[in-house]
Design brief:
The structure is a single chain. This protein is mostly beta strands and 123 residues long. The protein has no helices and 11 strands.
Length: 123
Amino acid sequence: VQLQASGGGSVQAGGSLRLSCVVSGGSFSSFVMAWYRQAPGKDRELVAGISGGGSPLYKDFVKGRFTISRDNRNNTMYLKIYSLKPDDTAVYYCAAHSRDNTLYTRQTEYTYWGQGTQVTVSS
């Protein structure tokens, strides 16, 4: 199983981005998927997760600015980020597991990881 994240870039505050994570190998619809991010000097943190059936989970700090979705026909998960802030600057990682249908928050529960895509927000 391989995960390929893309869509990051350098944007000004207030802009938006859509990140993508393409999964190859395995049965995509059976994977619980998640987005994590790691800002410079900080620990990696969960942003949002989505079950195989499309039920989302968001961390509180998202506050309506992030939308997670998935396309099971195209083996792709998305994260749309609106109203970007400098604090959103981080490497964004996608992750997956297939042990059950639980949206875990601990990153150790996720078996597969993408390489990360850099998001840089300037003020």
